[in-house]
Each structure stands twice: as structure tokens, then as C-alpha cells.
């Protein structure tokens, strides 16, 4: 089993310098070739279902929520800050004027960068840039070999980090790709962050779940980057993502975590999780207005505290199945809500985050069509950061390596779709000489124009099988999930960690040991 091949808890083996994890292609017999690392640029005009009056209607609805109804902030420090800003605070309810909100939001940069320990993996956030991240936070795991839903472990989590590092179409390492429930919550963040920062060299995330976890995460990212405190604070090196507690609430630890992050110069993403029909109005315009109000209330607070701090507005607006009450993802309503939120994000001048999601329980057809709907709605809305872009199942309750590999095929296709040479119209692309040479009686396979371009003319898949049925049958009739599973096992077997200075690694390990000795983060059990 993959877990037996590489146990995350075992001492690190001797590594060769450089490693192969980020290579564009595996050589020496490896079956997979992937696209090189790149930052996709979205060249398409966004889809905008709302006209100008529609944007204004949702904006006005969000502002009226903030002015007339208010948001509950269950964080004492936040309440004091809102009072200082002149907002109306009654108990935990905060009402704020639209002029103040817009003034604060306009302080936020429309574009910024996040620089991880490997500066070659620096990410531009905003504009037309399109970035993909791994699945984050499911408590359960499923793979084809296990064949059932099981609680996540550290070994599962580490293997999903290895996929995160291996695939060049995954740009950042989000939260835990599966929750390792075999580690006590008081020290879980220390072990998983150690794994994340040694197995990957991509932009990392911190959970805002209590001051100890956030402060430990920032310190570990600082150590892993070999940074002084001044260097760490000078520019974003990591980020956190928080969800509001819909409807109309922000809790204590998430706001606390964001305040700690922005005071040390780090980035925050505010993503309301609104399900139309349950946690938000059943109408998508009402659900989006509620989501916008929840997000802007927090972003305005952060800009009051640290003007110009890097903030991203997120959307996680979908609907429930009105027959069962279960969350649904990748639906037509989900797609339109994402597109609508994209219009509002551009209206406010904020970078945007969306997600690659599905409600399917296994990596099957439903999983892929719902995920494709989610991913393409992100593209259509000019989203900048796509969370959960690879590996998500069961509405975020399961992480799967097969689904991860299959999703990466889709992500690479999106990247290829965005490359300008696909739709270039120069003389070589119009190809009149080639058309004249072939005329009406020949074919294009053997002419020089084709020979010069055939190797790079079209997208080449690593999971899809383009052979006809008979050839596929002769080769063993291997279904997509099985091909993805085999590839996953090959990646894990051949994986080598990206290089890290031995002194830095030792310092990181010492920090983890010290914080464990101090008890880590407090829990009630």
C-alpha cells in the first residue's frame, strides 16, 4: 500500500539534491509527462449574467444588510475596533455605514504576491491570474485500494501533499488535504505543517483556529523560509482562509487569526459559506447579497486595522437539495452564483477565490461533471484563486488521491486552453501554404508544416485514454479511476522532497518538539 511505501511519521531518508517532485516530466520509464510549472493567465472576457442595474441591486442589498440588520461578531477585540471606527455596536451586533465600508474596501490592493520558501513558486494574486490549490480539510479519505471511506491519517495527508508538490498545475498547498485524526488536535497543526513545509515548497496556508495554531504556523513558515522577522513581515509569505458562520456571523477564532496575520503582513481570504435555502435565502441573488455583506464586513475591519493589507473575497455559495437538505455542488445555481460574485469582486476591486467542488461520493462521472462545472464557473468569473481544485469528494467530507489525479488532468486542460498559441492567427497559423500544398486530394499528416509542429500542437493527456474500444480492451480494459490509482502509486513511490537546508530543517524540527513539549494548542479534551 502507498501508506506502507512512505510513512509520513518515519524519519526523513537521505535526499539527493534537487529532487524530481517538480519536474515537468518523469524520465527513466515513468509513464507520465505533465506540463511545466506556469502561472495561467485568463485571457477570456468574464461571463456576466448581471447587467449594471443587477450589480447595483446586489451591492445595495449587501449594504442595507450591513446598515440595517448588521453582522454578529463574536470577537471582543473586533467589537472594540468597530466602536473605534464609529460603527454602531449593540452587544455582538455591528452595523456599519456603506460609505465607511466602501472607503475601507478601497484600501485593499487589487493585486499582490505571496512568496513561499522557494521564490520560484511565487504567486501573483489578482488581475487575470488563475491559480489552483489542493483539496483542504476533509475528515475522511477514500482510495481505490481501501475501497471505503475511512478517517484520515497523517500518512494519507502526507501522500496528498506529495501529489500537491508533484503536480505543476497545483500552485499552492492549502489546508490539510485530509484531516489526520490519528494525531491529537493539540499538536496536529505542528506535525502537519512540518510535513507540508518539508514535502512541498509551494505557498502554504494556516488555519485560523486559535492564536497558538496561527502563531505557530507563521513562525514555522518564517523558519522554513530562512527569514528574519523583518523579512517575514515585509511581504506576504502565506495566507489564511476563514469562513463566516452564515447567516450573518463571524466567530472568535477566525477573526482573531486574521487580525494576527494582517498585523504581520500576511494575506487573508474571507469566504462566506452560504447554502441557498438553508443558510441563505433560496434565491441566488439573495444568497449572493448575504455572502457579499458577510465578506465585506470582515474585509472592512481588516483594512481599518492594517490599511492596504492583502485581502481576497471568496465565494462558496451553492444550494441545498430541497428533498434531503444535503449540500449540492457544481449545480447551475452554483455556477451562476460564482459568476455573479465575480462581477461584484470586480466592482469592489478585490481579488476573488472560488472552489472546485462536487457532491459525489466516489471519483465517478458525477464527480467529474460537477467538478468541471465548478472549475469552469471559476474560469468564467475570472476567479484568481481556486481552492479544492483537486481531490474533493462528498461535499468536502472525503479526499481521494484518484480524484486528485483526475482533477489535475482537467486543470492542465484549462491551462492549455488559456495558452495564446491555441488561437493565434499569424501567417503560420492560417497556414495558406500548407493548405495550398495539400489541396483537395491529400492529407496533412506528412507535410512539413505538420512535422514541424506535431509534438506540441495539441494537448497530451496523462490519464485520459484516447485509443478506440478494441485497443483499450486489448490493453486490459482499464477504467479511468484505475489508471489514476496506478499513477498515484507511481508518483508516491518515486517522490523526492524538494531541497531544504539541513540547518533549516533541524530548526523547524526543534521548534515542533519545543511546542509539543509546551502542550501545543489548548483543547477541551
TrEMBL record:
GO molecular function: methyltransferase activity
InterPro entries linked to this entry: MttB-like_sf, MTTB_MeTrfase
Keyword Methyltransferase belongs to the record: yes
Domain of life the protein comes from: Bacteria
One Pfam family this sequence matches: MTTB
Enzymatic class: transferase
Family: Belongs to the trimethylamine methyltransferase family.
Protein name: Methyltransferase
Protein source organism: Rubellimicrobium mesophilum DSM 19309
